[in-house]
Amino acid sequence: MLITARMNQKQNKAQVDFHAIMMKMLMGVALGFTMLAFSITQAMARPDSFADLAENLSPAVVNISTTTVISRGGDQEMPQFPPGSPFEEFFKEFGERGQTRRAQSLGSGFIIDTAGIVVTNNHVIENADQITITLSNDDTYEAEVVGRDAKTDIAVLKFDPKGADITAVSLGDSDTLRVGDWVLAIGNPFGLGGTVTAGIVSARGRDIGSGPYDDFIQTDASINRGNSGGPLFDMDGSVIGINTAIFSQSGGSVGIGFAISSNLATQVIDQLVEYGRTRRGWLGVFIQEVTDAVAESLGLEEVAGALVSNVTEGGPAESGNIEPGDVIISFDGKKIERSRDLPRIVAETDVDKTVDVEIVRNSKTITLKVKLGELEQAENGGLLSAAPQTDQKSFGDLGFSAEQLDAELASEYGLEEEGEAVIVTEVIQGLPAAEKGLQAGDVIVRFGQSRISTLDQLAKGIDDAREAGRSGVLMLINRDGQTRFIQIAFAQKEE
Questions:
Q1: Is 495 exposed, middle or buried (0-12, 13-18, 19+ CB in 10 A)?
Q2: Fold classification of 392-489 (topology level)
Q3: Among this protein's residues, is 363 annotated catalytic?
């Protein structure tokens, strides 16, 4: 009996071991299938080819060429050269040909209506005397400007398709984009004609200093000069951006391109088509950034919102009882994270709409009702000309903002306020200044070889460098008592 019991124990143990081995094998197989399924899902998310999309979308993308007649003025004197100089005959011939020349430029655009409505960048057609649109089948048409908006760099054109069968695309919802999503750019780089490039969304909500309503999508899809005004597509074939600018030290693509988000562009395009101009909402406030020091002194729970520094007399904000010193933390149900968010959100809101404006005043949160006016009417009426000087200047194409150093800023950054100086207050990640290591709290000592003591001097130096066509700027900064030069390139707009 004892022997039998022991044999049964051995058999039971063998069965247990067998079951354990089988369970491990089954678990391994299941894990393998799970990993295989995950790999298949990943492969399905990553397209094998963009050929179908490119084939369907390319006919809606157009090449835009413009001609501008530039007058040199009839009274302009020709340079004087010694008799017999080779330049003498050249300038004599030049003078005989007249005092005008024709400048040409190239860009891209896309058709949004088969009636011949085309969207492009304002800087592509600005000052053009003649605009020619070329379709993917090489048919050409003369186009005219329906409306344009310099603030967002968007223009709408119209041409007569003369009964031709043309393709149109629609604008999508850029708010659904996620960093890492695939995107497709189609355009006319360097005048080569329809060119397709692919990449991903690198970042969203970029402010590159192009205008007051910057909301750019950053992408690594190859974008070059001539892509301006062309579409950036998502994988559903919807336009989620208008390719507008690149950052490049050489003039070619380095994988940092910027596209106007479709959600910002949609309302502008609709207004340009309907009215031939924009009709933006207007609140009537002058604002500045909420810094750590401001948030602490006002008892704010977080460093967010827009600090009202002044209110336009007779404007919507004054009628709605908004006062200087109020911090706007929400507008029409949308949270204001940074001060630069407010102008864009207000501008996108319908004129004459009554909205809820949530403010913090004396450490209390209050909701006010404000009926918006029209920004363009306020501009034409001179109501914005009395805007006070802002304490901060933004140099978006370099990627930083600066202020005049005062006692408050010196205390915030742990510095000694000794005479006039300029301090960096914000550096935008992913743009040139951040890539070169510039930091908030750096004191700008010199611009090139010139001593810098005021914000106006810095702004003038940067403007002069930009107008001179330089690729960037050289600044001497002081950080923790140590000085060093930093070379920062401009984020360039493609032509």
A1: middle
A2: Pdz3 Domain (2.30.42)
A3: no
Tell me which CATH code domain 49-75+86-278 carries: 2.40.10.120
Active site residue 19: no
Tell me if 82 sits within 8 A of 118, measured CB to CB: no
What residue has token string 């597509």? 233
Task: Name beta bridge partners: 182.
Answer: 200
Q: Which of 180, 224, 222 has its CA nearest to residue 197? A: 222
> DSSP 3-state helix, strand, coil percentages of the chain (rounded to 5)?
25, 35, 40
Whole-angstrom Cα distance, residue 316 to residue 282?
7
Q: Is 261 a catalytic residue?
A: no
Query: For residue 268, which amino acid is it?
Result: V
**Active-site residue, from 153, 207, 234, 332:** 153
How far apart are alpha carbons 370 and 318 in whole angstroms? 9
Query: Could you say which of 65, 105, 174, 228 is catalytic?
Result: 228
CA–CA separation, 361 vs 298, rounded Å? 8
Residue type, 471: S
Full-model pTM: 0.65
List CB contacts of 88: < 8 A, sequence separation 6 or more: 81, 82
- H or E stretch covering 443: strand 443-447
pLDDT tens for the chain, 495 residues: list them. Answer: 333 334 344 455 555 565 566 666 666 555 555 554 444 444 445 678 899 999 999 999 999 999 887 665 544 455 554 554 444 555 555 555 555 666 677 899 999 999 999 999 999 998 899 999 999 999 999 999 999 999 999 999 999 999 899 999 999 999 999 999 999 999 988 877 789 999 999 999 888 877 788 889 999 998 888 889 999 999 999 999 999 988 766 666 778 899 999 999 999 999 999 999 999 999 999 888 888 877 877 788 889 999 888 899 889 999 999 998 899 999 999 999 988 899 999 999 999 999 999 999 988 999 999 999 999 988 888 777 544 444 678 887 788 989 988 877 887 778 876 668 899 998 887 778 888 999 989 999 888 778 888 888 898 889 888 878 788 888 889 888 888 888 898 865 544
Pairing relationship of beta strands 182-187 and 195-206 according to DSSP bridges = antiparallel
Same fold, 281-380 and 392-489: yes
The active-site residue, picked from 105, 108, 123, 330, is: 123
Whether domain 281-380 has CATH 2.30.42.10: the reply is yes
**Is beta strand 327-331 parallel, antiparallel or unpaired with respect to 364-371?**
unpaired
- Helices then strands, counting H and E runs in the chain, come out as 12, 27
Domain ranges of the chain: 49-75+86-278, 281-380, 392-489
The rounded distance, in Å, linking the Cα atoms of 215 and 111 is: 22
